[in-house]
Structures are given as C-alpha cells and as structure tokens.
Amino acid sequence: MESKEILISVDEQEKRVAILEENKLEEFFLERTAIQHLAGNIYKGKVAQIVKGMEAAFVDIGLAKNGFLYVQELLPETLRPDEYALEIEDGVVEPVTAPEPKVSEERVRIENLLTKGQEVLVQVVKEPFGTKGCRLTSHISLPGRFLVLMPYSQNIGISKKVTNEKERARLKQLLKDIGLPKEMGCIVRTQAVGMGKNEFKRELKYLLRLWQTIQSKSNKSKAPALIHEEYDIVLRIARDIFSEDAKSLIIDTKDDYKRVMSFIKALAPQLRNRIILHKDKMHLFEKFDVERQIDQIYDQKISLKKGGYIVIERTEALVSIDVNSGSFVNRGRLEETAFLTNLEAAKEIARQAMLKDLAGIIVIDFIDMQKNSHQKKYCRF
Prior knowledge:
Blueprint: E1 4-10, E2 14-21, E3 24-32, E4 42-51, E5 56-60, E6 67-70, E7 84-87, E8 94-97, E9 119-126, E10 135-137, E11 142-143, E12 147-150, E13 156-158, H1 165-177, E14 185-188, H2 197-220, E15 225-228, H3 233-240, E16 246-251, H4 254-267, E17 275-277, H5 284-287, H6 290-295, E18 301-303, E19 309-314, E20 319-324, H7 334-355, E21 362-365, H8 372-380
Parallel strand pairs: 1-16, 6-10, 13-14, 16-17, 20-21
Antiparallel strand pairs: 1-2, 2-3, 4-5, 4-9, 4-15, 5-6, 7-8, 9-10, 11-12, 12-14, 18-19, 19-20
Helix pairs in contact: 3-4
C-alpha cells in the first residue's frame, strides 16, 4: 500500500526530511550543513603510531585528530580468531570484540601487521567524540539499496531482520546467480525482500563500479587523503528509505531534485516518476502541515484523538510515560474507556519513541483494566 510520502526541504543551514504516513509525521531527520559528518567516509591514511599495549594504531587521515584502528578491524578473514568475530547486520559490518580476549601464542599482533608510516585504506565507523578521534576499520563496506558490498571479505550474509527461512534461502541463491566476484563478500539488506535477479544485478553493477572508482582514486592519491565521501542525508534517504511502498518523494530545491533523479536512475529507475520537484510558493513543510507536527515533537503532553492524552517525562535514569483518559468517556463505561485509551496510547507511544528518539529504560503507566478479555487482547496487540 503506497501511503508513505517523503518530503525533503533544503536550505543553506540545514537539510530536513519528513516521512509521513497518511499525512501524519512518523519520522523526522535533520542534518546541519555546518557540521561535518564523517561516518562512512573512506580515507587513504598513514600510520602515525603503533600502540602495542592496546593492540591498536593511530592513523593520520588528514583531520585534526588521528583516527583509531584496532587490530580486529584490520585482520583479514583468514587470520581472525573467534574473539574477533564479525556481526553481520543490515548495513555496515560491525566487529564484535570479546570483553576479555583469549591469550594465545598464535595471536596476531598489530606490530606484525602495520608499521609506522605505512599507508592503509580505512573507513570511518564512528564519529570523533570529545578528545577521541574517529574509530576506523579496514573492512570496507559499500551500502546500496538492497546489498552491502564488502570488497575485502568473502562473507555472505542476510540481514537478521529477514526471518523467513524460505526468503533467506532465495536471497542467498540470488547472490550466487548474479556473478558476485569470488574474492568479495556481500550482505543482503532488509529492503531486498521480494526483489528479483534484475534488481540485484543492477545494484551489484553500480557497487562494483563505485569500488573501481575508489580504487583508482586511492592509487593516484598520497596519504592522507579523502577517497570517498558518504552521501549526505538527501541521497541516503533516497537509497535507504525511498522504495516501492512510497507514494512520492518531494524535494523543494532544483539541484537536489536533479541529484536524486540521477541517483535513482542508476539504482531504481522504476521509481523516477514518483520524484516530484516542489514549485509551490507555499513552503513544502507548511503545505503538508509538517512544521506544526515538528514543533509538537518537543511537547511533553500529547493529545489522543478520542480525548485521552499521554505525558512523557525524561530523567537521567529513565523515560516515564503516563497514560490518561482525559475527556474521553465511553458512555460511562470506565472499563471500555480504559481499554480503548490504552490501545490508542500504545500506537502513539511507538510513534513518539521514533520521533523523540526515546531509548534506555522506558516505563509506561497504562490505565488499569479489570476484564481478562481486555488484558489478553491488549497483550496480543
């Protein structure tokens, strides 16, 4: 069902994205142009220092602070012991390090893999924080809409979010059929569910061409140098969220409209006719009543359609959410009022958790219900 609409508004200071379901704001993203975003960038770096005690190296990638490269993010697959396993998820491959690595005489030392002054191709996996520089990896990954290409790995994986075993088997077979180079690995993303061979072939061709461009630029560049810059929020939304279930993607700047059209033409040409340039004099977010809904993200009290409301309070330790029936009374039937208010509140709390980015311990105080039938139905919901 095509009920999703994606709105992208761009100005000199910021880029904003609103995702609507039936004209209701479900997700909101903001990226300020003055803030440099590094995650996903690929650099040709130079080893500045080997830290033997930490099994890590500082790598100069041309920024104010050197990046940090752990040994487990450098080891090739054939040398990686169990404590340096890889977590295959729906996106960039994340290394998983055991809290207490096993002590072994055969353990590979970082000083045997790198030397000071050596050039190395790395990718940023975590932004710099405080006095710390970027966290780096040599396990390069290039995400597309359906696939994540891993040029230096032979791992083949399916996103954990794809739980249907028949579909997992079908997707894995597709990877074998599309001609993935033997020396490379690939992860199938959640959005690939239901996709066919042609979509996979088109995307693999795009990712391989991108990797060739990166290799060529790396060979010609002297470290430290930026080799590949991750897409801004406009193209990331077009790549990761804009799909068959979207009714339209509306953009209010001509340059970004052209960029997205060119990008989608290469990855998903069947979606081009759903990309619209907003030409109306009224601001895009005003026309779709998004500004008002964005302002409400910061409200503690959120009203429900039937007259009830929820109150969200954040503390250092947890998030508390209180559900109230308010002015909603179902003909004096308090039990029915409680049940219907709780159901409506549960849906709204899930929406608010996305919009407000609620995390950690969340305590919800729903209205008490006495009937077993209501309690059971509520649990199933």
